[in-house]
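Why do we care about 3D structure at all? Because function follows from shape, and shape follows, mostly, from sequence. That is the central idea of this module. The next example makes it concrete: a single protein chain, its amino acid sequence, and then its structure expressed as tokens.
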Amino acid sequence: MLDRLRRGHALPIRPGRRPRTLRLRLTAVYGALFLLSGAGLLAITYALMWHVPGDTCYTGPDGLNACVAESGGHGDAPSTAMTEGQGRAAAPFALTPEDLKALAADQHAHEMHQLLIRSGIALAVAAATSVALGWLVAGRVLRPLRRITEATQAISATNLHERLAVPGPDDELRRLADTIDALLGRLDAAFDAQRRFVANASHELRTPLTVIRAMLQMTLTDPDATLDTVRATCQEVLVEGERQDRLIDALLVLARSERGLDHREPLDLAGITEAVLATVGPKSDLLQIDVRAALDVAPTAGDVRLAERLVTNLVDNALHHNLAGGRVDIETGTTPRHAFLTVSNTGPAICLDDVDRLFQPFQRLGADSTASGDGLGLGLSIVQAIATAHDATIQARPRPAGGGLRIQVDFPLGQRSSETQGRPKQAAVRD
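And the structure:
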């Protein structure tokens, strides 16, 4: 038996035995508490009534009352007082004070015994009443919990968008319902991200695989194929395979970003941007683009690798969707409530209605003069997903003059770490 418990095996429930519900347990607790408190109150009352101070009195069956009062003086003998019963003559009274004390003690014990019996009956009736009331109160208290359970059981993968939305005061049950709603929201986002990932992957991978298969079939079925032809086909297949590797990596990053963050750590957008700009020198030189940066401390919290990917995608997007001899302006800093990153680039004119479409997967707006043709159409989609995971907002709009786009990402403002305290504003220029 102990081995089965250690291995985590559940013990079988005896057939025909109903499980003890929470309502039944609460009712038992209510009844037990009332019974214990009532028994304690009865014991205290019994003890107080047993030791009542004062005169010792005896009431006879003929209506004669006799009391023995303790004298106030030291050494005085007790005195006896008698009263005559109503409507009848006083009987001869020949009892000593000691006899009266004995009779009064017996009568007091009998009265206390009767008090104990009657109080016990009253306690039993009150305990039964408390059990019934406890059953009703427990049912009323647990009614919202039953509704939460039934509503949660009715939600499945097909209707994860539904929420419990329990009304009422901000108590434990309301917080439980809000916690379940938040969990359903995360599950809904995860399921939606998974569906989009599968759809995007199947859409983008189907065509290249078809092309690779066609190239290999053409080479294999060509009777005049030479060694150089086979090598050229293999080279094209390798290039296409590398592109698929990058596509799969991008899709994985997109899915991971849409899933949300498992942990957060302090980070500085200025430091991350500075590290990214250190790697874009050859690319900007090749494209003949002037990169200018004004980096001020921008503390926030999140995933450092995802934040670095966000900055990299924004900079790559600004470089690839640009003009020869164009310009990219990058700025980081803080406002009273946000830490921001702004990337602005020259380039082709963009219609305001098309800006939102740029953040959808695999959306491209025509050809770009400096584009190398290796774009996947996922750069800004990944930026949007990473920003959402960091509770950040994106503002994108066309530049008022010269074409191009200006994108600003506002992160929740974090605390300045010891590494960024007193860090001066940096201006970087790359021609």
